[in-house]
């Protein structure tokens, strides 16, 4: 029995690069798909939000000097590409996935319609939410919080490059230590950058817990879905 009936899984775009410099690493995406497939077999309904940082980010290198909103729309389009790649990898693995976009791009993917998304989930299909929230100045972490709340997910699972929430950015401060649990209030007060404050605040207000764990660690998703202690739980 899974510990959760329905989850919202946030996959880092940047982590999908694996050891590549850009784009999507086939082995990394195939491994993530296999892990998602395994948890669906437990009877867990899975919705996915995927980032775009492996292709384009509104606030990084390639966007210097650009109008921020324009750069953010490019970032959202990057998430559409990742979503298509992910859904196709799922198809190859024998999983049925549906991509729904927050921005109209009807010839490519169907638009996000909440009742339709709920129907797909009830049918056991994996739903991949593309284009983030559909708005510039937001992130795919916030999209994960938003869609997670909308579909009544019991938890937002953030699969990223680090294996939890640390006292400081572990990429910059090697003396940082990992929390096994932390409250939303403390994570916000300490300005911990593992997720943006908008995402934290939305989940806190909706009483939707977040678990942060490593996308690089094989079997971590399964352990989380089985209710085992993995990564960091951010709670109300
Ligand atoms: N307190 C912290 N605990 C953990 N990670 C942190 C913290 N502060 C900053 N980070 C950084 O946040 C990154 C994850 O956030 P982000 O870049 O938005 O990832 P994603 O691509 O998954 O959206 C980690 O790779 C880590 O280096
Ligand atoms: O609701 C959203 C979600 C994403 N983005 C843009 O899309 C980029 C890629 O998303 P994100 O950085 O969250 O991806 P990840 O960190 O997971 O790779 C962001 O930098 C933003 O420019 C946006 O404008 N609105």
Can you put this structure into words, describing what you see?
- The chain has helices at 26-41, 68-92, 114-122, 140-150, 184-189, 197-205, 220-225, and strands at residues 6-11, 45-50, 97-101, 110-111, 126-130, 155-160, 181-183, 210-214, 232-235.
- It has 236 residues and is of the alpha/beta class.
- It has a single domain, classed as 3-Layer(aba) Sandwich (Carbamate kinase).
- The radius of gyration is 16 Å and the shape is globular.
- The relative contact order is 0.17.
- Adenosine-5'-diphosphate is lined by residues 12-14, 51, 53, 141, 160-162, 165-166, 168-171, 192-194.
- Homohexamer.
- It catalyses: UMP + ATP = UDP + ADP.
- Catalyzes the reversible phosphorylation of UMP to UDP.
- It comes from Aquariibacter albus.
Give a short overview:
This protein has helices at residues 26-41, 68-92, 114-122, 140-150, 184-189, 197-205, 220-225, and strands at residues 6-11, 45-50, 97-101, 110-111, 126-130, 155-160, 181-183, 210-214, 232-235. With 236 residues, the protein is of the alpha/beta class. It has one domain (6-235): Acetylglutamate kinase-like (Carbamate kinase, 3-Layer(aba) Sandwich), CATH 3.40.1160.
